[in-house]
Structure formats: structure tokens, C-alpha cells
Amino acid sequence: MSNLELNSTSLLYLLQLASPALPVGAYSYSEGIETLVDRQIIRDYNSLKHWLERELELGAIRVEAAIALRAYRANQNNDLSLLLYWNSWLSAARETEELRNQSWKMGRALSRLIAKIHPETEPFLSAIGNPCNYAVVFGVAAASFALNERSLLLGYLHSWATNLIGVGVKLIPLGQTQGQQLMIDLQRVIEAVTKKILTLEDDDLTSWGWGLSLASMAHETLYSRLFRS
Asked: Taking the CA of residue 140 as centre, how many other CA atoms within 13 Å lie in the half-sphere pointing to its CB?
């Protein structure tokens, strides 16, 4: 299957995997946006759009998606040692305890789910063990669902953006229509970043989104919190 083709069954699997309804707890995390809204750094449609665009182009989500792609390839090649390597690599790359715990908890939830509905993934997921990062499990699941690489990345980035737009709708607040318009506005960036990730070398797996690290570290000091990160 090419990176441009996706049959109807695989498309349905992609929609399921990227759905906000997937029971992995993504809705409970703001990834620093709650701190940024509290400090009025993100305060409206344009400032949220700017933050999400910069994160997609330069931040940790680009690296996460690249690791999901590498987990996908390792699964296809039956390379358990490479899966373990990238899982450990991503755990070490997380800048804060909150972001690392988010990745691990969502990864554990998705791992349990995928192992039940696709038992053939169990050897790979067992080999990774616990903790297992969400991006790594997502890559394994995408391989078991016979998605192609481009669809895997589009789904992962779209799912991330959908969740954080939902956070902005609640906290800023934004209207639901503005939230949907923002998702449309981000499509061009998601497509461009997907193309870059497909050719990203291992030595280029870096994040310039240091603002996320600072926002995440400050989150626990907020007077009140709706989200876990």
C-alpha cells in the first residue's frame, strides 16, 4: 500500500485510532496550555493558533510523531530490540515529569486496549513492557491496522491538535465554531509537517519548543487546575 492510498477498512481503523473518544484519557491533559492561558500568553483564537503551529513545526509533538513512525517500522520488521530502544529514547527525551507521566499513562491505556482488540500485537507490547510511551503504542497499533506511514502521521498529529483545541475551547474560552475553524486552519501545517517527518533522520530528532517545558513545569503551581498537565 502506498503512502497515498488507504482502503476503506484501514480508513475506519485510522478514524478509530485518532478519535477523541478513544479511551486513553487524552482529554485530561492540556500540555502546558492551562498555564499559558492563566498567564494570558494564550488568550484568543490567534494566540492559540500561533502556539499550535509553532509546536507542530518545532516542538515535541513533531518528535513524538517521528517516534511513532519508527515504532511502526520496527513492528513491520519484527524488530523488538528497536522498539525497546525508541521507547527508552522517548522516555529519556521528556522534559518534565508531567509530560513523561502523560505519555506513559496514555501509552498504558492504549496498550491494554490494543492488546485486547488486536491480540497479534501482544508479543510486541509485552516486549516493550511498562512504562510504554503513547507514541510507541500508536505506531504498533497503526502497523497492526495496516495503515500507511502518511496516514499514521496525519492521524497522530490530527488527534493531538483536536485535543488541544478542545482545551482552548474550554479555557480561553473559544466558541465551538472557532474551534472547528482552527482545526481547518491547521490542516496545511499538519500536512507540511507530515512530509518533513517522513524524511527526518534520527540525528534530527530535536525539539525547539522550550516554552512547553517551562509551561509544564509551572503547571503544578497554578492556584486551580482543570487539567493534569
From this structure: 34
